[in-house]
């Protein structure tokens, strides 16, 4: 594993092949990387980045994983969306952007012939699982990396100093309808296969959140599995240079021929 676990967040990476726009706001865009010519056709991977939904973090830190996946034959779109701390971010704009982006990007790329895979990390893992609950357009599957899969519990734990309250505009007792809509743990599990991967050394999102979500989803009939990785922290899951990365790629590969 790299000595600096956060090094991936700022690692230089070649620019994307193109950037597409799915709305009028400057953040309603996606960076696109295409596989090498002649590569075996694989489904589009839409990457939903983390950062506790805050404006301080954008899609750029997922560039290394996107470049690695593209080199492995996947078309990849790094989805951007409005985040808390900026106009339109939070409820409901952040959620509306994910719906609009996941719906529009395959069409914009001429890849609407097959449902995409969703790969989400941390807050992006929450958004990927949430999208799969309603899926206005189908997805092939979800790989959620250390997802914030229980918003009420994340609020109780005060993860990232009020991140959930900033996202939804209050706590569960103040805006219960928003939690009922936005919290994957309070909804019927998604109809598509979901794989959750979580490191046991994660200090940002406790693995207990994924354990509880997986158990409840499976009890509700959901096709959800959890892979726990010892000696793995939060950012190793998005780092192609880490020992955890092959596990992430294997999870994606298990969802398509």
Automatic annotation (TrEMBL):
The keyword Hydrolase applies. It holds the Pfam family BD-FAE. It comes from the Bacteria. Residues 1-27 are annotated as: Disordered. Residues 31-212 form the BD-FAE-like domain. InterPro entries: AB_hydrolase_fold, BD-FAE-like_dom, GDXG_lipolytic_enzyme. Keywords: Hydrolase. One of its GO terms (molecular function) is hydrolase activity. This is Lipase. It comes from Phytohabitans flavus.
